[in-house]
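Researcher: Here's the sequence for the chain we discussed earlier.
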Amino acid sequence: MRCPGPGADGPVIGRRFGRLGLQVALVLVLVAVGAVVAANIVAALTVTSEANHVLARQEASETRAAAGFGALFALIVALIVAPLISGPVERLVQAARARGSGHPEARVGRVRSFRDIRELAAMFDQMADNLGEQDRLRRNLVASVAHELRTPIAILRASIEAMLDGVHDLSIGRLRSLHDESVRLGHMVTDLQRLAAAEAAAAQLRLVTYDLAENAADAADSLADIADSVGIRLVRRPRPAPVRCDPLRMREVVTNLLTNAVKYTPPGGEVMLETGMAGDQATLTVSDTGAGIAPEDLPHLTERFFRGRRSADVGGSGIGLTIVDELVRAHHGSIDFASRPGGGTKVTVLLPAV
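Model: Thanks. This is the structure I predict for it:
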């Protein structure tokens, strides 16, 4: 049975009083009946051995009355407690069975029961939501990869077929165009390999105690010539920031952030790289004086192959920040973006400090 429930994203599955509830109630009632029977047997034995004593009869009568009251109380408790136990458990079972039958939208929803059972139901729904989000990301990834690969493959195929059919002559210019498209395909494959490596980074990190300032300075030195060639001033403000990290992976993080900042900053602009401490966390900050990011794009910056409105004229595959996010989370850190159109962008990475 399905019914809408509060706090659930999909249909809620459950019953008010299922077979499990009947079983729990039956067990409690049988226990109560057994208590009555035992009390009657004890009372009968007591009366047989002391038949001439009025006091013994009175005690036997009181014993039967107490047993009967206990049975009635047990029956009432069974009718109250059994639904609190059986209802949520049966809803969990039905939700799990529904998900296994191909209904990923099934949820348990909010339940009235004991604390542990409520927490179990909430954890099930949270797990279902997380699995749904991961499935959505996988579908988006497949769609994005297919979309990115379709254009260069179509261009290559059309150009080659045109030359084979004699529509176009074989020339250096056309061969150069085909070469450019093949290079673009190669870059996409390389980016996908980098993304797969970043997603597996948590199991491959080689953690050592390292100064984030030194790591950032090395990455900035390797990009200084590129920034100078496009007329961008690269400013460094390193302060000690000791962390436990994989130096090669963290250098990849800094390189990706600096490359992005240089790419989206116009000539004559400035990119600033800072490291330091903020309480018990080490900070890495990259800020620029570029065009900024639209507010509606900020929540999607780390999604695979996401390209904002202002990046249409800038080359790239849209996975650089995805790789940064994967590597930062693998180091148990977090990343924050602050930007406004025309006001530049500031990216802050927080890592646990040593």
